[in-house]
Amino acid sequence: MSIAARLETLREITNHPLNRHRRLGALVDYFRWNLGHRLLKTEYLLRLAGEATIVVSDRQNFGTLAYTCGLWDFGEMMFMLHFLRPSDRFADIGSNVGAYAVLASAVAGAHSVAFEPVPITYGELARNIRLNNIEHLVDARRVCVGGSNGSVRMTSTQGGLNHVATDRDKDVALVETEVMRLDDALGGEPCAFIKMDAEGYEAEILTGARATLENPALAGLIVELNDSGLRYGHGNDAVHAALTDFGFAPYEYNPRARTLRRLPTFNTGSLNTLYLRDMVRIAERLASGPRIAVRDETI
Question: Is the entire prediction scored with pTM above 0.90?
Answer without folding.
Answer: yes
